[in-house]
Specification:
Radius of gyration: 21 Å
CATH topology of the largest domain: Ribosomal Protein S5, domain 2
CATH architecture of the largest domain: 2-Layer Sandwich
Order of helices and strands: HEEEEHEHHHEEEHHHHHEEHEE
Number of strands: 12
Structural class: alpha+beta
Number of domains: 2
Number of helices: 11
Strand content: 15-25%
Shape: globular
Distance between the termini: 19 Å
CATH class of the largest domain: Alpha Beta
Amino acid sequence: MSARDIAQDTDLARRLVALHRERYGREPDAISFAPGRAEVLGNHTDYNLGTVLSTAVDVGHCFAISRNQGAGLRLLAGDLGETVSFSLDAVGPVMGAPWASYVKGVFYNLASGGLEVADWDCSFLGNVPIGSGLSSSAALEVSAAFAAMEIAGRALDLKDVAALCRDAESRFAGCNCGLLDQFSSIFGKARSLIHTDFRSLEVTDVPLAADVRFLIVTPEAAHRLADSPYNERRESCELAARAFAALLPGRVESLRDVSPADFERYRGRLPVEAAMRAAHIVGEIDRVARGVAALRSGDIDAFGALMYESHESSRALFENSSAELDLAVGAARDSGAPGARLSGGGWGGSLIVLARQADIDRLGREIVERCAGRGLSVGARQVVPSDGARVLRGRAHA
């Protein structure tokens, strides 16, 4: 873990402890941290059983829990200064406090799996920019799960933790997402990308060259996946997979099983919209494979070209970009960035920009200036590939 990661954790945890103590009158018994994530290559491929290159980043959520005497489950959102109480009696959101639904879902799933969820006072605090596409929701879910396991004294398999967090987002918050965000938050590795195969659930580190850096560029246009066409795109992919399964009997379980050659041969047999969505997914899985090879050979320019190609596919075929993101990609290209693309579900959120260390400050300034000159206000910050979720205070950290 880098010194920067430790400093981020310590500052967030210190502030959270003060808020927790003020609201509940006692110190937390367990504190955890989980990072957000940046999707670097492989867009919407996770729920198609494909592959993704992603990274945990150096911002996230801290989550704290202390035991109470008969007060039930209470949750403080530190950024909002709001507290709600909820029970685990039924599946569904926390009415009037959508941010609490993610935590309720995680606790519900943990309790259903046999972990004792008792009378707990909980609080959380984060530094993930809301609407940035860095998956604040997954960071919240994973941090809640890690703190709950710590205070309950029971460790679960981390892949199972990712799955129950994903299920919480689907059933309690209304976004039928894949496992990418949770896997990235849990399995992140400092100074590396992680290559995840969402069929085998195998995770492999792909070390980055020493001078590789990333910028996150965020237009002032927030997004929420539950309100976007995300679920519709997933349904289109499933329709395309069923069509290919009929065309290639016994060979296709998901779009992961459709090669570029098979796609070109049969694309005319699919509905036009389903064929467009499938073209994006099949192309993305191929780009991830080529991207891993480029990184392992140190060919940063080739990797960057794949990022630009990925964004164009998102724009033209999957139609999950936005005018703001397209403008920002153009600004990155005009500024000389080796690569840039939307990161995450799309329809807003952020752009991830590939840079070399010597150029990153200049690129950040020029992208902001070029966007401003075209009428778009953006923020740009460096993100550091970081380690995944961890417990900061608990039985082994007292």
